[in-house]
Amino acid sequence: METRSAGFAIRLYQLLVRFFPYRFRCAFESEMLQTTEDAAAWIERQSRVGLMLLFGDLALQLAAAYLRECIWDLRYEFRLLIRKPVFTFVAVTSMSLAICAGSSFFSELNGTILRNVPGVAKADELVTLQQPISYPAYRLFREHKDLFSSTGAYVAPVPFGISFNGHTERVWGHLVTSDYFSTLGVAAEAGRVLDRRDEVRQGTPPIVVSDRFWKSNLGSDPDVIGRAIHINGKLCTIVGVAPAGFQGASPMMFVADLWLPVSAGGSVAPELADNALERPQLTMFHFLGRRRKGAASLQIETALDTMQRQMLRDSGHPATGDGHLLWVASGGKLIPIRGRELGLFAFLPMVVIALLLLIASSNVVNMLLARALDRRREVAVQLAMGAGRARLIRQLIMQGTLIAFGAGALGFALTCWLMHLLSRLRLPHAMPVRFNVEVVWRVLAFTIGLTALTGLTVGVVPAIQATSPELVPALKEGANLQLRRRRAFSVRNLLVVSQMAGSLTLLLLTGYIVFGMKSMMAGASGFDAGYTQLISVDPIRDGYSASQAEEFYPKLLDHVKALPGVVAATWTEAIPMQPSGKMTFTTDIDGSKVVDQATKYIVGTDYFQIMGIRILRGRGFVKDDEKGSARSIVVSEALAQMIWRNQDPAGQRLSLVNKNDVSFGLMGGSAFDYRTSSPDRSYVVVGVAADVLETPIAQPGPAVYLEMTADDYAKPPFQGITLATRTTPDLDAASVIRAQIAAIDRNLTTFNAETMDDWIEQVMFVVKIGLWSYGLMAAFGLVLATVGLAGVTAYSVSSRVHEIGIRLALGARSQDILKMIMAEGMTLIVIGSCIGSTLAVLAMRVMAASMDPVAQSIQHSQSDLRIAACALGVLLMVGLLACYLPARRSGRVDPVVALRQE
Amino acid sequence: MQEVLDRTNGKIRLWPATLYGTLERLLDEGLIAEANRRPPAGEDDARRRYYRLTALGRRVLAAESIRLEDLVRVIRAKRRAAGSEA
């Protein structure tokens, strides 16, 4: 090596040696420099590899030296934290709650709108439409080869009755077009997937089953390909098994274990009967497209929307309004959302979480500042002994980092637990909505990042403040002597007041809504269905023909009605509080046509009696209405009020229009009603029924009740048809009714067997979770506010030790000092409470004005002063405790210390 | 550095950073301490520092030698057993 480059290497080495920690340099720097100089000749002889080894060794040792220092710091700060268990506990707990909130939210995002549909290839290329479309529309869209490289469509949710080994099981699946699998990019695990071959029907219809179904129901049979199996009573052939993990294009909303091509026809799937693939009005298909490179969402949206409009115009039902008919959404994610909505879904909550974290962090910063004041002398001594400021800041940051990582571990554990609970949540719905938000590595990474960030935030400020004292005064006895400025409006106090106000607002709001909702549910649900047993059947999907089904329903009903202990029984499609489709109706009032929408319930003759729904005027249904030719309809009170006001609705006529807006949405997905395609029909109002809650949180809207007819029996909805039986209290209704069903047909599948009480419990469970989360937020707010107050009080005591000492020396008793400190805290609490109460009243007014359920529930509770008293009491108690604990220290100040400082 | 290389017949090269890093650790753990005794003036270099093993260091050294000897013995025995089986 040349001498010049050897000289450069030596100089570089000497420079790098200076980066070693101070302590190391004190001990060894000169020797290391000497060694390098001595080795100059040797370095000159070295090849490039030798030099790299030399510098590599230096880098390694440098890292090791710093790591050793960090470990010392951590050990030191850890010991200090252990010595202050209350401080540590409070800081860690409050921060872990904030971290848990952040991680939980991210976990939900990750499990829903950020997660790809398992099993599909290149999920980012997939698009879907938020609205279901008709098959003719799909055929049109499919031709757009410039936008899509491939397209598919499917009907979901579709229940199938699968018979094997002598019994029938109800399994959910999709009716798919031939290019469904190729569009998703899914290949078969065994056999083949459905493809172009299956477009034309030949022989027995082919089906593909999921890996889960193959393993759990077919016993992992290796010879499953080619095996014949009965679907809805018709013979089908299994041609393939889908790969493990693949559960359809929408595994969260519409999980699928079985795929049947649409070419199978109406004889296998009742959804496809009546020429379903040719009717432009029947919108039951979910669209799937794999977009070409460069095709923007907006371009696709515009093109498809234009086509849809054109098609509706051609079919004689032009779309009303100028708004978009179709919205393009991400097709490869578990919850399809539009690109523009992502900001709303992800960004807004992120800001809230960030604020929450900021508040929690600032509380801990307050507490750390108080501690930094206590540690001033220690830090000053360290500085005086020659410790570098950067070195001390690093050491103090370790304190924040330790707290943050304790909080991160606790917060992550809490998140895991919460998400586990959430994943087990079963939504009260006939179709199996699977909500899987289990914590995965991405959430862990997010939590670690969040924790590190908070640790740094929390550590830096107090560290900088603590290491900047002028040495001389800090080392003197009067270290903490500070001139009091006006502190009433310090940021610290403002923060605590706003936290107090915020948490009281939350507490009051939650209290009033929760208690209001309880009393509302107790009295005003609109139905009373005690001792009512529900049990659902679906004979058509068990292979019955329409005529067999028509025969079966009245027969079973007669058998059940004849049982001892049965008060009344009826067949019904709807049950209270189960989502039901909307329907558009028209009626003539004083010569002018009125068009409006109402929820449609298809029910049996004795439905009102069994569900305890009062008939306010006219009559309920009678046996003759079942024929369908009578065209009787019962309307809800809300609808009667809305349309006829004070007139008697009995005898008025209503026309139901079949439009394509009959589907109902559920969390971004929608379920269709495949039967709403018959021509418009006119009905005569025979009675008015009391309003029934549609969901626990919404005011009952207008509703119409239609009597079930033979046609409804032949085309059951996806939730099957339910036998509702009201019995005497002592009857084990479920088993008795099952025995009756078995007596008629041993192989008939029964499902969703539960009592009305169970059903209501399920529905309310979701509401309870919502309310609980509000309650948790209020509790969280309270914890934050308390920690904030404790921090401020502690800071106040620490910074005024000197003043307190003088007061004590001048004759003040320790109770007086305690009172003085507590009075400051109390002032903050009182101001916070006043602002909080005002805010709560305002918020309730605003919410009540904009949200009906809130107005409804608050109506029942607003006069109850006990709620306000309780919330205020809780806040006051917790606040007092938060003041008292740190304020106690003021009594322990030694007056001698104060005198010595003078 | 040079001495280590010489003493190990050129097998171990102790890089300077490792050398001083190790010295620091040994000092921290109390296994070595700076020695007061220096070699005769003729052989001494004023810039040099000398270290001696502490009592604890001696015990750790002995224990470590035994541990390594045992390890070697076990491995040899295993290899011999494997050799005789083959």
Question: What does this 3D model show about the protein?
Answer:
The complex is a heterodimer of chains A (902) and B (86). Helices cover 51% and strands 16% of the residues of chain A. With 902 residues, chain A is of the alpha+beta class. Chain A has 5 domains: 3-83; 85-113 and 338-476, no CATH class; 123-336, no CATH class; 496-527 and 753-902, no CATH class; 539-748, no CATH class. Chain B has 86 residues and is mainly α. Chain B has 2 domains: 1-53, no CATH class; 55-86. Chain B is 58% helix and 7% strand. Chain B contains 3 helices and 2 strands, in the order ααββα. Chain B has helices at residues 2-7, 16-28, 55-85; strands spanning 32-34, 51-53. In chain B, strands 1-2 form a two-stranded antiparallel sheet. The chains are: A alpha+beta (902), B mainly alpha (86). The interface between A and B is medium-sized, with 19 and 14 residues.
